[in-house]
Structure formats: C-alpha cells, structure tokens
Amino acid sequence: MIEPSGRRERKKAATRQKIADTALRLFLERGYDAVGIRDVAAEADVAVTTLFSHFASKEALVFEQDEDFEHRLAQAVTDRAPHEPLIPALRHEMQALVRHCAADSAAPIWRMIDASPALRQYEESMRLRHAESLATAIAADLDLPRTTTACRTIARFVIDAHSLAREAADPEAAVDEIFRMIEAAWEVTGL
Fold this sequence. Notes:
Helices cover 75% and strands 0% of the residues. The radius of gyration is 18 Å and the shape is globular. The protein has 10 helices and no strands. The two termini are 31 Å apart. By secondary structure, the chain is mostly helical. The protein has helices spanning 7-30, 37-44, 48-54, 58-62, 66-78, 86-101, 107-115, 117-141, 149-166, 171-189. The longest helix has 25 residues, at 117-141.
C-alpha cells in the first residue's frame, strides 16, 4: 500500500482502514447480506457520508485493497529494471499477491465472496478494470500508440492467474505453471 505523506492524508488513510476493518469484521461475524452500510458506519463511528467518501459501494468495502492491487501490477511493468523482461516481472508480483490472498487468514473472506452473487459480480468487474489498466501499462511500456489485442490478452491472462492460483491446492506452483503459458503466449505476439 502507498504510504500517505502528510498528516491529513495519514488521517484519511487511517479512517479508511478503520472503516474497511470494521466492515470486514461485521461481514464475517454476521454475514455479508445481514450487515448494512449504516451498521458499518455506526460501528466505525463515522457518518454514512464519510463512509461513502472512502468507498463507492458496500462491495468496495470487501475489496478495500482494490486500488493497491491494480497499482502494484502496473508498477511491476513500469518500475522494472531497463532490461528486465516483462513477464518475469509480472510473475514476481503475482506470486506476492497470490501469497497474500491464499493465506489461511484470507480463506473466510474468499468463502464469503464466493457465497455472494453481488461480491462475485463486483470482483469480476474489478478484474476486468485491472486487466484494462495493466494492458494500458504494457502498451505504454512498449511505446505503442494504443492498447493492442495482444496487450489486452496478456493482461487478462495475468489477472486471471490470480483467481486460478488462489483456488489451486498449491497456489505458488499454479502461478508458475500459468506463467509458463503466459510467457509462451507473449513470445508468440512478437512484441
């Protein structure tokens, strides 16, 4: 997560985290559908308008690290060493993200997401947005005038690697296996 530098930004980040932590605790204790926005705001001791200034929807409370995830993948492209190949840089970042999401402590959260049609739909739209963002970063890195089908396809493969690996018996081995296929697909593009 990006660390805020100023006092005001740190306070906003702390409030955001408090809201997210409170929401997740309530969702896991009572069930996602049984908890309303007002319940979360009251428990976090913030106004509903404050909650909505940090989170656009109830679903966004569950995926509070959404922007960080998206940013980390784009950074894996833009911040890699000058001659470091693209796909290994993305593999390294995805390994770290999957390790975090496949931890035992994350299992109840994923069960909650899997049980909720609203959360599954939100996750799918989030993944599509992440793929577009990653495709844009790849195209910019290659100095392409626009995002190509090849960039979008590889980005989708990378984003899908997360959910496929997270569900695997051995998530890290799954990332390696998936990225061997992504590497082969990337080589075929000739970019």
